[in-house]
Design brief:
569 residues, alpha/beta, 3-stranded mixed sheet, 10 strands
Length: 569
């Protein structure tokens, strides 16, 4: 009789879990599939797509430090779709769903059934998490790996030895997707295995699993890069990115502070505005409870702290330029938020004499509605007013507008603007060239929001038959990790092959058949002023307010603009 009761209860529980997974799956698909981006969203997205063709970190296919498992998985998926953007977005959606499901199961162990359900639903409708589930990037994959390691590690902490070696395997293999995952998640993993009891024999076995699993992605990455020396040089590029964001790497303190403020905005957006208010309310009203030693030494609190804080502190000290990096710990923040919603639902239940289900459902509905409104409302703060203005030429108002736009406008409108801008540029260039790629070259310099629009990397990918040049000099490299002083650089792409050169003066040898150059440049730059003094420049106004320029070169064989010498033949 007892056995039958236990079996029936197990069946009911499994049925309930399957129902919840089904609901999560339907919600993720319904909220993602209709709104996916049509183009590779950013520079890094193209790097991943090119990695499908040939894995080469030196050529930024993809960029360092590698992501070999992610590129390999995408390449397999691409056999089905035969479209890099679709394949990468598919991975974003699948890993979004995986993150939500694992967050629910982990939260149920840490909190309660209702808090876990709340955490899963809140994560689905988190504006930042939602946004990255619609585009071709790696960040939802990183989120999934973080939650997977946290889930396995917490079960080790609970005393379940079956999860010990799988947790070590997941930690090491995560480096094949994002290498920084191993560093950021290591503290919480080590805490869990240490608390479970480490013997010499167990330590040796765990170390062996970690090393062999890490070598499974490290060795192929080094081989495909061309050896350790080439890999080390390529990986060194990553640290250069902090030169414009962190005072520890030489950036102005104002730039560092601005990036930290943007990080705060991204965390608030990740939680949702209402969710962030619940955090603030709890800290203010329950501060005595929060900071009591008996509360802080709780193993669950320590677990969440060690999951969230390493990556968060790194981002405070060495700021990064995208909200996607917060997805490493966003699920942990959502688990806490699920607990807070249940906490305040109990208060509402007592005060208004309503059921807990009603109170919690009302709070969840408010959070979801506000998050959905933020994601869907077609608000475009910038209206392209500063897209072609160099940062050093902006007034204070323009800088504030741009800063708000870059920090907070992560919604469906931003995806649509990116897709529409790509459509306009590609269609207009085909019109200007009469679809004669052999007689038209494209020259691109940075505009303020190049990574959301028609950047050189995206142009070279979607217009592979054209000669596409990327020019950098002192004027437009000061916000880059590779700041140029007396030198200039030119990168040329044709059929996804890249050729680069650098020096005080660089010759650009145009094909003898070249009759036109399409210019994607800022009309407020010194480069543009010099260009107009050398060759005739025609202007094409796009419907979104941006401009494309072009020059007819039928009677021009040579001209010089700054450190760039254009020669035909």
């Amino acid at each position: 009789m007892l056995k039958k009761i236990l079996i029936d209860k197990l069946k009911q529980r499994l049925s309930g879990e399957i129902s919840i997974i089904g609901i999560f799956s339907i919600l993720v698909l319904l909220t993602r599939l209709p709104f996916i981006s049509r183009y590779l969203f950013e520079w890094d997205s193209v790097n991943f797509a090119l990695g499908f063709e040939k894995f080469d970190i030196v050529a930024h296919q993809p960029h360092s430090p590698g992501y070999i498992f992610f590129v390999g998985l995408g390449k397999v998926v691409n056999l089905l779709f035969n479209d890099a953007n679709t394949s990468l977005v598919f991975l974003s959606i699948i890993f979004s769903l995986g993150t939500v499901i694992l967050t629910y199961f982990l939260a149920r162990q840490l909190t309660s059934q209702w808090a876990a359900l709340s955490a899963g639903l809140l994560l689905i409708f988190s504006p930042v998490f939602w946004f990255y589930g619609e585009i071709a990037t790696i960040y939802t994959t990183a989120s999934f790996m973080a939650v997977l390691i946290a889930f396995l590690s917490y079960n080790v902490l609970k005393g379940d030895g079956r999860f010990l070696y799988p947790s070590a395997l997941a930690l090491a293999l995560a480096g094949g997707f994002r290498q920084d995952m191993m560093v950021f998640i290591f503290p919480v993993w080590f805490y869990c295995i240490y608390q479970s009891g480490l013997t010499l024999k167990r330590t040796v076995k765990l170390t062996t699993v970690l090393i062999l699993s890490a070598l499974a992605w490290l060795i192929p990455t080094i081989i495909f890069t061309g050896g350790y020396s080439a890999y080390a040089r390529a990986a060194g590029h990553f640290m250069g990115a902090f030169q414009t964001t962190s005072i520890l790497s030489g950036a102005p303190w104002t730039s560092h502070l601005l990036m930290d403020l943007m990080l705060l905005v991204w965390i608030i957006l990740g939680l949702g505005l209402v969710g962030a208010l619940f955090y603030l309310l709890f800290i203010v009203k329950e501060s005595k409870r929060v900071f009591r030693w008996e509360y802080l030494k709780n193993r669950k609190i320590i677990f969440l702290f060690l999951w969230i804080m390493p990556a968060l502190l790194f981002q405070v000290l060495l700021p990064l330029s995208k909200p996607g990096y917060t997805l490493i710990y966003l699920a942990g923040l959502m688990i806490i938020l699920g607990y807070l919603l249940e906490f305040y639902a109990f208060k509402l239940k007592k005060r208004f004499e309503i059921s807990l289900n009603t109170a919690l459902g009302a709070l969840l509905l408010i959070c979801i509605l506000f998050n959905s409104l933020f994601f869907f409302y077609p608000y475009n703060l910038n209206t392209e007013s500063t897209w072609e203005t160099q940062l050093n030429q902006m007034n204070s108002t323009q800088k504030i507008i741009l800063g708000i736009d870059l920090s907070s406008m992560y919604n469906l409108k931003k995806i649509k603007i990116n897709d529409d801008n790509m459509d306009l540029h590609i269609h207009t260039i085909h019109q200007i060239s009469n679809n004669q790629h052999e007689t038209t070259s494209i020259v691109i310099r940075d505009i303020t929001r190049e990574d959301q629009g028609f950047s050189w990397r995206k142009a070279s990918y979607y217009l592979p038959d054209y000669n596409v040049y990327y020019l950098q000099d002192y004027e437009n490299s000061q916000t880059k990790s590779n700041k140029l002083q007396s030198n200039v650089t030119v990168s040329k792409s044709i059929h996804h092959q890249i050729y680069s050169s650098e020096g005080p003066l660089v010759e650009i040898n145009l094909d003898p058949t070249t009759q036109k150059i399409v210019w994607v440049v800022s009309d407020r730059s010194q480069f543009y002023k010099l260009l107009k003094s050398q060759v005739p420049v025609n202007e094409v106004l796009l419907s979104n307010g941006l401009k494309i320029y072009y020059s007819d070169l039928e009677s021009v064989d040579y001209f010089k603009v700054g450190g760039f010498v254009f020669k035909r033949g």
